[in-house]
Design brief:
The complex is a heterodimer of chains A (254) and B (291). Chain A has 254 residues and is α/β, with parallel strands linked by helices. In chain A, 44% of the residues are buried. Chain A has helices at 48-56, 95-106, 110-123, 139-152, 169-185, 197-203, 234-253; strands at residues 4-13, 22-32, 37-41, 63-68, 71-72, 80-83, 157-161, 189-194, 206-210, 217-222. With 291 residues, chain B is mostly helical. In chain B, helix 10 crosses helix 11 (157-181). Chain B starts with a helix and ends with a helix. Classes of the chains: A alpha/beta (254), B mainly alpha (291).
Chain lengths: 254, 291
């Protein structure tokens, strides 16, 4: 299960009394139902990555907490694993070794590892590339490895930090479709950070639109368009317009 | 020298296209290699001229001016003949083996710099405590330890190995620390996020991530150690290449001295090349990263 509750999360960098302190997040609250795909949409510097880092256990909230099935997240671990923008694949490990790594850390019995690893490598479409090393793969393929590696540990919550930002436009479109396909085959609660409106609409069941710093949830939108999402569909376009206006206001305010 | 470095660097770039390379038939690869080797030969022209001048000076010019001086500067042919003699008699290999054995043992002890460097690079507390000590010890040249080490260990292998150890230890230590500190922080986070414990992290991520830099440290260390070795053997040994050349001095055997010097140079170069090739073979991903 992976029922996520973000409850009154605030994050302050630096000392409250110091002049250079930064309030990155201010009282952020929302819920993500089990196996829902939720995007955090906002400009850079709106604290969305900070929120993700708190969810990953890399940082502690100043107040509030993020709960998975009622238990607060305290430390990093396979339960709340993260996919990075720069893939963060271990360069000295082959595709297979990268994917099996989390299973070894998790202490899965060795005879079960091979099957599980192979399953996720096939799922992301990298069958036949098991023995390649990251530097021998293209950007899109590297991100597939990262996705397989994260899914293999069967997290309750999958976190993604602008996972396709480093790809070119065509690859990005393609990988977004691939992510939806993989997620539909292997449903997970996902929290994805992005600044791309299209990416948020294409992928998500719900979108939390963030204000500029200090980051608050400006609006929480449930997306119930049928999948696969048609970019020329009227409701897609009206949602896009709505999101653009919400985001645009944030620039105007500056 | 710089020419050969450039060629070596070029080869490194080539390694990034392993598929293409493997596809070439052996005959073609052989011809490419042969061509590379041959095209390097013109770079040796100046060296050849200098050796010929040396030969002329030693055999014809110096003897006419002052026969005494001719002894101080033996001709290349004389040196070659001595080298052949020393190889045939096994004398050269005896001393070489003694030196290599010391270098090897000293290296073995000096690998203790790897866990220490990892601890210093990984735990801030360890770094803060140990670094001041290292910063005081590090600038002291290994040679400055010779008098004290003779009193501590007496003359012989232990004293020699201690001096060499000092030469190897610090480059490995410094490079290990740098290697650990320079690991991409996202790799550490990724490993944490996949559930790695502190111990697994050190074994599987920190050590592996720092390994290219550790190997660089080993290369530099073995080089410094090799220099320290000769100095240590000059004063405190009765075997080894350093002893060989110092011993030959007392008998005015300049040809033996030069053979010993050349052996020291050639072996130093071989050790360095060996470690470099080993690193390239073991860590192909590291080259791809540095590109």
């Amino acid at each position: 299960m992976g029922q996520i509750t973000v409850k009154g999360v605030s994050k302050l960098f630096g000392d409250r009394d110091a002049p250079d302190h930064v309030l990155a997040l201010a009282d952020v609250s929302f819920d993500i139902a089990n196996n829902q795909f939720c995007s955090i949409l906002g400009h850079s510097g709106c604290g969305k990555t900070t929120l993700l880092n708190i969810a990953a256990g890399f940082e502690k909230p100043t107040s509030g907490s993020i709960l998975v099935d009622g238990d607060p997240i305290r430390a990093p671990g396979w339960q709340n694993t993260m996919i990075f923008q720069d893939y963060a694949l271990f360069p000295w490990m082959s595709v297979y070794q990268n994917v099996v790594f989390g299973l070894e850390m998790k202490g899965l019995a060795s005879h079960k590892r091979a099957g599980a690893t192979q399953h996720y490598i096939e799922l992301v479409g990298l069958g036949g590339f098991e023995n390649k090393y990251p530097h021998q793969l293209s950007g899109g393929m590297r991100q597939r490895v990262a996705i397989a590696r994260a899914l293999a540990v069967q997290p309750q919550l999958l976190l993604m930090d602008e996972p396709f930002a480093a790809l070119d436009a065509q690859n990005r479109d393609f990988m977004q479709d691939e992510l939806v396909r993989i997620w539909q085959r292997e449903p997970k609660t996902v929290m994805l950070v992005t600044h791309s409106i299209d990416e948020a609409i294409k992928l998500s069941d719900c979108i939390a639109v963030m204000t500029r710093r200090p980051g608050r949830v400006k609006e929480f939108i449930n997306v119930d368009l049928p999948r696969p999402r048609d970019e020329d569909d009227r409701s897609y376009l009206s949602l896009k317009r709505k999101l653009r206006n919400l985001i645009h206001d944030e620039i105007e305010d500056k | 020298m710089s020419g050969s470095e450039k060629i070596a660097a070029g080869k490194g770039r080539m390694a990034s296209a392993p598929k293409m390379r493997a596809a070439l038939p052996f005959a073609v690869r052989f011809r490419i290699r042969l061509f590379r080797t041959l095209s390097f030969l013109p770079n040796l022209l100046l060296l050849l001229v200098l050796v010929l001048l040396w030969q002329f000076a030693s055999k014809f010019w110096l003897p006419r001016i002052d026969p005494q001086m001719a002894i101080l500067m033996p001709a290349p042919t004389t040196i070659a003949a001595s080298a052949a003699g020393m190889i045939a008699s096994g004398e050269l290999f005896y001393h070489l083996a003694a030196s290599l054995k010391r270098e090897a043992f000293a290296f073995l002890y000096a690998t203790s710099a790897i866990p220490l460097g990892m601890a210093m690079g990984w735990w801030r507390v360890v770094y803060n405590q140990v670094n001041p000590i290292m910063e005081i010890l590090r600038p002291i040249p290994p040679l400055a330890w010779i008098p004290l080490s003779i009193l501590w260990f007496g003359l012989g292998d232990a004293q020699n190995e201690f001096i060499i150890f000092l030469g190897i230890f610090f480059p490995i230590l410094v490079n290990t620390i740098v290697g650990v500190k320079n690991i991409d922080p996202n790799l550490i986070r990724a490993a944490r996020s996949l559930g790695a414990t502190e111990r697994k992290m050190l074994e599987r991520i920190v050590f592996k991530g720092a390994l290219p830099q550790i190997i660089t440290g080993i290369r530099i260390g073995l080089g410094v150690g090799w220099m320290a070795l000769v100095a240590a053997e000059l004063v405190g040994a009765n075997s080894g290449l350093g002893f060989l050349i110092n011993d030959a001095r007392s008998m005015l055997r300049t040809d033996t001295i030069i053979v010993g010097m050349l052996a020291i140079g050639v072996i130093g170069l071989l050790i360095d090349t060996f470690i470099r090739l080993l690193g390239r073979r073991l860590l192909p991903w590291s080259l791809a990263l540095s590109k």
